[in-house]
Amino acid sequence: MPTTKTKRPARLPFNPQSLPGPETITRRELSNGIVALIYENNTSPSVVVDADLRAGSLWESRAQAGLAGFATAALMRGTERNTFSEIYEAIESVGASLGMSGGTHTSGFYGKSLAEDLSLLLGLAADALRQPTFPADQVERLRGELLTRLGIRANNTRARAEEAFYEAAYPGHPYAVDEDGYPETIQAITRDDLAAFHRRHFGPRGMILTVVGAVRASEVLELVERCFGDWANPQQPPEPALPPVMPPPAAVVRRVVLPGKIQSDVVLGAPGPARRHPQFLAARLANNILGVFGMGGRIGYHVREKGGMAYYAATALDGGLGPGPWRAYAGVNPKNVDKAVDLMRREIRKFTTRKVTAEELEDNKANFLGRLPFGLETNEGLAGNVGSLELYQLGLDYLQRYPSMIQAITRDEIQAVAREFLSADNYVLAVAGPE
Amino acid sequence: MPPAKPKVTKTRLSNGLTVLLKEVHTAPLISFWLWYRVGSRNELPGQTGISHWVEHMMFKGTRRYPGEVAERAIARDGGIYNAMTWIDWTAYFETMPADKIDFALRMEAERMGRALFPPKEVASERTVIISERQGRENSPSFRLAEEVQAAAFRVHSYHHEVIGDMADLETMTRDDLYGHYRQYYAPNNAIAVVVGDFKTGEMLARIKTLFGGYRPKARPARRPRPEPEQKGERRVTLGGEGETAYLEVVYHVPNAAHPDFYPLVALDSILAGATALNMFGGGTSNKSSRLYRALVETGLAASVSGGLSPTLDPFLYSIFCTVRQGQTPAAVEQALDVEIERIRQEPVSAQELAKAVKQARALFAYGAESVTNQGYWLGHTELFDTYRWFDSYLDRLGAVAPADVQRVAQRYLPRTNRTVGHFVPEARANGAGSPPPAAAGDEDLA
């Protein structure tokens, strides 16, 4: 990537102590294990709630793939207090949104409303989590919608390439199984399975509830206590142990043919570091250099800007509670698949054998520090950041320490973490397209 | 409580550049937007997609600000930097830490008249844009929407998609692109918007210094050709891969500045849920809307959405349905007809209208959280009417009465004013086999 000669060290455009931290984030642990985090932000009269619960697809069997997601989606289809129609009439009448979604390690809800409607939002969320009724007709309707969605995904090149990538990168691991399930598993799950999964797995232990917006922390705490304070589930099981994840032993290639498609999607990479990995920030900075900075970092530059081969070409590092993937991806014309793969491998080889330049490192550090205020501008951004302090046990002062941690990362650390996870010879490649 | 509503300062420089400034001091950020009054609306056959391609070429830079240098400078400061082309406009924006925004101003001032369009870069961008189009063609819903829009507009240039037709993407030349740029990129065809942490007087002086040197250009004489009134229903049926069927129904409706636009916003909210007018910010679901109840709760569709866009010339109100497995577009269409007839025959309730207003108020609050979205709104509304459209939106929506909604339903939703599109998967049309196994991914239902 061409660069100019000027070089200046990354300078902080803000005072780290002004970022959300122990002084401004209210953290309260309820007696049942729920951790509530509240951050007051008065820039707009709205509020965001974001919650993670320790239930997800890790707790389901392969034969019932999709059960956790199905159960979570069904929580708002009717409760002991309200019907489906009443729930959504209440939410939408005030222009609010509230959605439940399943994941692998966690499931949760996310909602947004005018600040004046927070009690409505939390009350409905508590009803859905604590007293869902899984009405049979609603379960069938939801099943039909899930099957339709699986049909759309089966026909989507990006989704099919990702699915094939996960299967090959995580053999024998729960990550190899799609958390949305498969038509035959979604067909077979019964209403009683959903109710049983909910009864056993949904509970307050490990739950993190983040509230950000034009609210008072003391009032929110009272509300949270009222909605969730007496929730208990003694049978809630701990997270199952995950099998170890191995780097790909060789080049593992999967091709998915979808006749009638015009473009192919390519995914190339390997399992990456979990969020708690000691070198996670170095990996994130490495990923930025390799495939994010500007229009897709080095890979974007060579595949899109110089090669003219793709509208999107970049890399992604997932992290998370477990070892999510680190991969490059691009959408290219079928005749350019091999060329794009060669370029990706060439850039990974360069990246793992030669250190990044001092200039690249400074540019990318500046980028990380400069964009921090953007992530903290809206209630959504704040809620996501504040919630992850708790989820990943980073500490309430993490955002304030973040600038100095970024500034301390060295070229050697970037290279070392890239070599630990990426290889130009041993990787998983998945391609989905017309041929 | 939130601070009092900051005021907007509107100025027109002597060279015709419209400038809108709004101070917001809640975060040390500034969003700068530059809007040009050119989009696919201004394109003729043979050059469809040219406005979007010109937008891509602007990222290749000028002599003083080569593409990679600008990209790097903005990324170094953590800025957000992008552009978009739509039927009526092309917009460029940078949101940056307040003390860094001057770079964006200087770069946009350069790009207004000194972009280079090197032939080599034109060649490499041609295949990038073709790849962008092919990526969209991978999705049956794009192919259906493109066909339906083309059928709805026989004369007006809203006929073609912003991305352009493949025939033109393969044949347009560097000189075509450069000519389009020279014709439409001029101060008197642009709107500059700044929202964020600055002082109005200083910012205005800076914009005058940087943009004041450009001379105005004669506006292109050609005006888009008005679409004749549609006198009968049009229908499009499309086949293709996959296992999912789609239905889209579109009606011709007036432009944003027309008084009927507000009753149509209320109608859309009641039928299909509030459409978020924010480019950045939250929305709401539509599970209590009439069409969700009639189409999704009955098991006919997996999802339904309505689309009403504020535009310069009369455009479309669209209803898009993902048909549930085992159902047909025809069955969904039949149930949709019943609801359309109902809103034409019976007045909506005061309660439904009040809900539409409250939804709009909430969506406005969400959109106001980011300076980037505020910049988007000011420029966008100034382009199709005036920025005051934004200020008066909630009041004018609040003034809509049930009789107004019924009147616009009768006026704009007759069958003769619509185009209906069905996408029917060929596997299903031929009665063939079972669906392929499912996959991961992140595509939404609609």
What attributes does this structure have?
heterodimer; A: 435 residues; alpha+beta; Cytochrome Bc1 Complex, Chain A, domain 1; 2 domains; 6-stranded mixed β-sheet; 5-stranded mixed β-sheet; 15 helices; 17% strand; disordered N terminus; B: 446 residues; 16 helices; disordered C terminus
Second rung of CATH, namely the architecture of the largest domain in chain B = 2-Layer Sandwich
Name of the level-1 CATH class of the largest domain in chain B: Alpha Beta
Number of helices of chain B: 16
Major sheet characteristics of chain B:
6 strands, mixed
What is the end-to-end distance of chain A? 33 Å
What are the secondary-structure elements of chain B, in order, as H or E?
A: EEEHHEEHHHHHEHEEHHEEHHHHHEH
Quote the CATH topology of the largest domain in chain B: Cytochrome Bc1 Complex, Chain A, domain 1
Class from secondary-structure proportions of chain B: alpha+beta
Amount of helix of chain A: 40-55%
User: Helical element count of chain A?
Assistant: 15
Classify the helix fraction of chain B into a percent range. 40-55%
Q: First CA to last CA of chain B: what distance?
A: 37 Å
Q: What is the count of distinct domains of chain A? A: 2
Strand content of chain B: 15-25%
- Indicate the CATH topology of the largest domain in chain A: Cytochrome Bc1 Complex, Chain A, domain 1
Largest sheet geometry of chain A: 6 strands, mixed
**Which segments of chain B are poorly predicted (pLDDT under 50) over 5 or more consecutive residues?**
429-446
Q: What is the CATH domain class of the largest domain in chain A?
A: Alpha Beta
Question: What does the model show?
Answer:
Chain A is of the alpha+beta class and 435 residues long. Helix content of chain A is 43%, strand content 17%. Chain A folds into two domains: 22-228, Cytochrome Bc1 Complex, Chain A, domain 1; 251-433, Cytochrome Bc1 Complex, Chain A, domain 1. Chain A is built from 15 helices and eleven strands. In chain A, helix 1 (67-74) packs across helix 7 (191-201) and helix 3 (118-130) runs parallel beside helix 8. Mean pLDDT of chain A is 95; it is low at 1-9. Chain B folds into two domains: 8-211, Cytochrome Bc1 Complex, Chain A, domain 1 (2-Layer Sandwich); 234-429, Metalloenzyme, LuxS/M16 peptidase-like (Cytochrome Bc1 Complex, Chain A, domain 1, 2-Layer Sandwich), CATH 3.30.830.10. Chain B has helices at 50-58, 67-76, 101-113, 119-137, 140-152, 166-171, 174-184, 200-211, 261-272, 290-296, 329-345, 350-367, 371-384, 388-398, 402-412, 426-429, and strands spanning 8-12, 18-23, 29-36, 80-85, 90-97, 190-196, 234-240, 246-253, 301-308, 315-323, 418-425. In chain B, the strands form two sheets. Chain B has a six-stranded mixed β-sheet, with helices on both faces. A five-stranded mixed β-sheet of chain B has the order 7-11-8-10-9, with helices on both faces. In chain B, a hairpin with a 4-residue loop joins strand 4 and strand 5 (90-97). The longest helix of chain B has 19 residues, at 119-137. The chains are: A alpha+beta (435), B alpha+beta (446). At the A-B interface, helix 2, strand 5, helix 4, helix 5 and helix 10 of A face helix 2, strand 5, helix 4 and helix 12 of B.
